[in-house]
Amino acid sequence: QLQLMESGGGSVQIGGSLRLSCEISRYVYRSYFMGWFRQAPGKEREGVASIGSDSRTMYADSVKGRFTIFKDNPKDTLYLEMNNLKPEDTAIYYCAANSWGPATLRSTEYLHWGQGTQVTVSS
Predict the structure, then answer these.
(1) What do you get for the CA distance between the two ends of the chain, in Å?
(2) Cα–Cα distance between 96 and 33 in angstroms, integer?
(3) Whether the predicted pLDDT of 61 surpasses 70
(4) Is the separation of the CB atoms in 104 and 50 below 8 Å?
(5) Residues 10/18, Cβ–Cβ less than 8 Å
(6) What pLDDT digit, counting tens, does each position of 40-51 carry?
(7) Which one-letter DSSP state was computed for residue 38?
(8) Is 90 exceeded by the pLDDT of residue 31?
(9) Distances from the Cα of 16 to the Cαs of 58, 65, 67, 78, 123, in angstroms?
(10) Beta bridge partners of 5
(11) Among 34, 36, 41, 116, which has the highest number of CB atoms less than 10 A from its own CB?
């Protein structure tokens, strides 16, 4: 079964940057679409960014222009570059994947999930 492992979370000041990584192991599909989601305390999980099997990307309005999703295929790793971080970006961030398809921010489209990594943005 496909496994996903996030890393790169931490604490950062307002306006700072972080890069999250999601290492993919135990491939079971020939192609994937992948996404980053986040869940803040007391809130529902929300889609942040996604990249389709065709490499097209999709972003939540709240992160457009600040976050970038990209894949390094030789390293089997998905990334989320986060800039100009705000307190409302504080959450546990999860990466997710499923077999071939377009980018989507709908969590129900994803079959495989990582354990999450905490991101905290404060003054």
Answers:
(1) 41
(2) 9
(3) yes
(4) yes
(5) yes
(6) 999 999 999 999
(7) E
(8) no
(9) 22, 14, 12, 21, 10
(10) 23
(11) 36
pLDDT score recorded for residue 32? 86
Say if strands 57-59 and 117-122 run parallel, antiparallel, or are unpaired: unpaired
The two three-digit tokens of residue 86, written as one number = 């705000």
Neighbour tally for 92: CB within 10 Å: 18
At 114 the pLDDT is: 96
> Taking the mean position of all CA atoms in its chain, how far away is CA 65?
15
| SS3 at position 109 | helix
Give the H or E element holding residue 53.
none
Please choose, from the candidates 40, 62, 39, the residue with its C-alpha nearest in 3D space to the C-alpha of residue 49.
62
What is the three-class DSSP state of 123?
coil
- Residue 21 CB burial class (10 angstroms; 0-12, 13-18, ≥19): middle
Q: What is the DSSP string of 58-106?
A: EE-TTTTTTEEEEEEGGGTEEEEEE-S--GGG-EEEEEEEEES------
Q: What is the pLDDT of residue 48?
A: 98
Which two three-digit tokens encode residue 30?
């020939």
Residue 35, SS3? strand
